[in-house]
Amino acid sequence: MYEEELHRLSVKLLDEVEYIIGYTSGTLPFRSRPFLCRKKEEVELLTFDHFSGSNLTRYLLSKDLREKKVAILAKGCDARTITVLLREGQIKRENVVVVGLPCYGMVSLRKLEKHFGSLRPQDFTWHLDTFTFQGKTQSIGPFLENTCQRCLYPNPPLFDYLVGSRVEYVPRERWKEDSLKRLEEISSEKRWEFFAQEFQRCIRCYACRNACPLCYCKECFAEAQRPYWLSPAATRSENLFFHAGRALHMAGRCVECGACERACPLEIPIALLPLKVEELVREHFTFEAGVSPDREPPLLTYRENDPNEFIK
Amino acid sequence: MRGLTMRVKMISQEQFRKRLAEKENHLAITEKAQDVHRQFLPPGIKVVKTPKEILFPSWKEMYRFFFKERSWEIQEVEEKAFSDPTFLLLLPCEARAVVEVLDTNFLREDYRDTDYARRRARLNLVILGCPAQHPTCFCHLVGGSPVWRDGKSAFVLPWKEQFYVENDEVLFGEGDPVNTQEKREIESWEKALQEKLPPPLSPDFPEKLYAHFEDPEWQDIAFRCINCGACTFLCPTCYCFDLTVDGKLRGSMLRTWDSCMFPKFTLHASSHNPRPTGKERVRQRVMHKFSYFPIREKRYGCVGCGICREICPVNWDIKEAVERMVKRIDSRCDIN
Amino acid sequence: MIPAATSTERNIYLPELVSIEEILEETRDIKTFRLKRPGNFHYRPGQFAEVFVPGRGEAPFSITSSPTEELYLEFSIKKTGTVTEALHRLNPGEMVGVRGPYGNGFPIESLQGWNLLFIGGGIGLAPLRSLINYVLSPLYRKDFGAVSILYGARTPQDLVFRWELQKWGERTDLFLLTTVDRGEPSWEGRVGLVPEVLKGMPVLNAQTLKAIVCGPPIMIKFTIKALLEMGFQPSNIITTLEMRMKCGLGKCGRCNIGPYYVCKDGPVFTYEELQTMPEEY
Amino acid sequence: MVNEENWEPKIVAFLCHWCSYAGADLAGVSRIQYPPNIRVIRVPCSGAVNPLYILKALREGADGVLVSGCHPGDCHYLSGNYFARRKFFLLKELLRFLGIEEERVQFSWVSASEGQRFSQVVQEVVESVKRIGPSRKNIKEFVFHV
After folding, report:
1. Residue B3 above 50 pLDDT?
2. Chains C and D, touching by 3 or more CB pairs within 8 angstroms
3. What is this structure's pTM?
4. Structurally, how many domains does chain A consist of?
5. Same domain flag for B162 and B216
6. What order do you get walking across the sheet with B162-166 strand by strand?
7. A206-264, pLDDT tens digit by residue?
8. What value does the mean pLDDT take over residues A103-112?
9. Chain A nearest C-alpha distance from B61 (Å)
């Protein structure tokens, strides 16, 4: 999407920034991956498609890019992450040029394969929010990632340049698919069986934590020795402890980009926990992460009428 | 490798499916083997992501300690009856990972890991040959082939609506003998398949790669890697583990999976870390499999199964990294 | 087929519990622990063992007592991490686990017949002490030539094995020189960094000398540079390396420098071997 | 592992030093009886209770966790309990979302003068934990009994 406009802008940008962090096509079908564009000749490699799922903001925190002036491609959720990082003083605004990408949602290869069986990239042609497969054009809605189906900010709230045209609809209203709501409706015993079965499979490879730009602690509580919270053994209870702990650390920070869920090699729907916490924060503390830089984050403030009836 | 005493037989596809369905609760199959041979397999066989789930589980209590009557006691963990499967269906590359890498590390004569040895002796490998090379794998690059086998474990190859089976007494039951003409046909087909494969890495690649330790190329290769443990945990050849104590007055020493990608892997108590950034750690992963392990054990530490390429969150590709280093080496650029 | 692990086969990770007989306070953060020697525990100087503190963890420490002491094992341990902190809280009579010995130890055969120069820095004297006492023991003294020891620490309070330094000083067949980086009024001995003091030592005939160096990485680097300038051959400079270790058996994959596992192929290397290794330690 | 009849739940109670701990003290001094199942951990303020403490307690085998602090407005540090309330709310809702029994983690405000009320709160907590039985969902797998 928006390739030509993106390339023209990138050539101009390379005069004022040292690197452009973007996506390029991957070495496997249906995969695109993070890419550091340095020289004008490499600009042609920059792409943006329905499989550019990783959140590039985490590369802004790496040692060698932190001090340099860098441009970054940012979908709606990625741009919100930049706002959160600015608020938390991790990056300097003048070092970052944000190229906003109006995003129609990332497609889940798993859902595609479940529906169409094994696929080849050449059979697909992708448009903004529809795709053509064997002559039939259909909407991407049912095949979007869970988080993208309930997205509220397709257009980046923060940007220096905006490529392409804004998305006119709010995906959550349009697709009416909310995996979080569906889970809340079933009984708590069934929910426990679902989560117990999923957390049993987790192998604690920390792909979810390392893919999340907001998980930048020097020493994560999951690997700490002093104090010693949990062991590296990937048992159900330890995995539950880790994922619940991480979700709580995301309170008022998670931008619901779903990069953690996409990073999981075992396709465990772990984003449900941070999403639940984010939903609670939105409902009860009327706060949305990464939208307005000056609002006080929820856990740094309080109100008299905060929920209190659960306390005896 | 194919001695005369090798028992070979042909069985029909129905017999293959029926026998597997019968022994279902003793069986497991790796996910990649299931993808390649899906159409021949009965449903309901336990799927494991990697052979390590059975041979080298992600966590295992090595021993227990507890404080009793004012002194400490240490106790081995008594082995409860194994519920793990006794047969594992896997692809030649994964079998090679078990036989040529995991066994080398855990069953070395000086210190045998008794837990691994017990599990390995109990498990019968059933190697399902690949009819053709899968697009994401590169077993040819590291000296493997789609029809590799170790001559001891059972080997099954789909052959013209039937299955050619080697070395199996228990699993598939009786089969009709293989006449010499058919045997020669199979062997020539295998030879043709292997000739068609692209050439492997040059024999002196490990030493040459070793000399390119300081090559600036590593910085670019390592840029996009987010240093998670996904590739190392699901790689059939990665055997690194951690020994941690859990529990204060009573607890256990746990052997769990560990990854050279994690910063704490080499962090000294003095907070010095010989591999402080992602570049050193990505370089260690590639150098271990394509230089250090081959220099020590005369075989590659990677079997080219391509699992790490498929599951990497940012599509970091070890084959691409090796090919870039090959280009650097061939371009004769001296770096020091 | 792979022989099944017989139940009698030893679990290689199992430590043996031994009691702490004596704890000597060397400096404010270094203590020497004297443990009862586990059954059939035979080791060479320079080898290390994994010490298991129940309820806390396990860590590798070089054995500082010489194998000639039959009854006990000694470890000199500096308080730096969780396991060492737990060790420093223990009292005599409590139990710790010992597993080992591991590592290749000093190349005794290749040292025989040579004059020896020991250079230790801070706690780095601990692994050297095992070899020094082995060499000075009545049984093996004749196998080795002249022995000289250069030992440096940051301040006089950081000097370890003070009573042993005293004993070594009184011996006639041994040249001992102790220095500190920063002197104090009460300190009459030499003041200066080990590499500088080394250059100032009386004329050393590098052809007949083997140097054994142990200490913090920076000290090793500059000392080796000084030794090379004084004409020492790389194969005659021997040092031990510090890497993070967990199993000690060459299996857990973390202590490698290039293809060498420091816990199995090391921790003792000659500088000649170090030159072939990548700069990653 | 544990037979049901004479099973006594193990409950970890984080009591804030200024109010709830003093309340518990007052209950003891005035000889008010309350079940002995709680193991008290004194914390400077309910705001100092990191949700990871609660998850850690459940992991190590606690059947129930009670966190008790000053009533909103009485906090010695003025706003410690207000911040804590938000964190506890998120933790409670997250555990409920995961399908973990409500009674596992309970919170209360008990002031220094409410000795009687403290024993009632403990009474309620112990009974409700007894009703739902030993904790199985969070306890670490390699616990063993000597």
Report:
1. no
2. no
3. 0.94
4. 1
5. no
6. B8-12, B162-166, B154-159, B124-128, B87-90, B27-30, B46-48
7. 999 999 999 999 999 999 988 999 999 999 999 999 999 999 999 999 999 999 999 99
8. 93
9. 10
Q: What is the pLDDT of residues A36-79, one digit of tens each?
A: 999 999 999 999 999 999 999 999 999 888 889 999 999 999 99
Please state the domain count of chain C. 2
Is there a single domain that holds both residue B20 and residue B135? Answer: yes
Query: Cα separation of A111 and C225, whole Å?
Result: 62
Any domain includes B335? no
Contacts of B330 (CB under 8 A, 6+ apart): none
User: What spatial distance separates the first Cα and last Cα of chain D, rounded to whole Å?
Assistant: 12
Interface check for D103 against chain A (CB to CB < 8 A): the answer is no
Last residue of a domain, one of B196, B227, B247: B196
Helices vs. strands in chain B: H and E counts, helices first: 14, 11
Residues B240 and B102 in one domain: no
Give the chain C residue nearest B70 (alpha carbons).
C94
Choose, out of D141, D142, D145, the residue to mutate when testing the contact with B (most B CBs < 10 Å): D142
Query: Residues of chain B whose C-beta is under 8 A from some C-beta in D?
Result: 61, 64, 66, 68, 246, 250, 252, 254
Which pLDDT score, from 0 to 100, does residue B81 have? 66
> Among A100-109, B315-324, C182-191, D106-115, whose mean pLDDT is lowest?
C182-191
Q: Is B62 on the interface with A (CB under 8 A)?
A: no
Partners of chain C (3+ Cβ pairs below 8 A): A, B
Structural domain range at position A164: 3-300
Closest CA–CA distance from residue D146 to any residue of chain B (Å): 8
Q: Give yes or no for a contact between D91 and D1, defined as CB atoms under 8 angstroms apart.
A: no
Evaluate if residue B308 carries a pLDDT over 60.
yes
Number of folded domains in chain B?
2
Residue in chain C closest to A226 (alpha carbons) equals: C82
ipTM over 0.85: yes
**Model pLDDT, residue A243:** 97
Chain B touched by D97 (CB under 8 Å): no
| B3 belongs to a structural domain | no
- Answer yes or no: do B174 and B228 share one domain: no
Q: Do D82 and A306 touch (CB under 8 A)?
A: yes
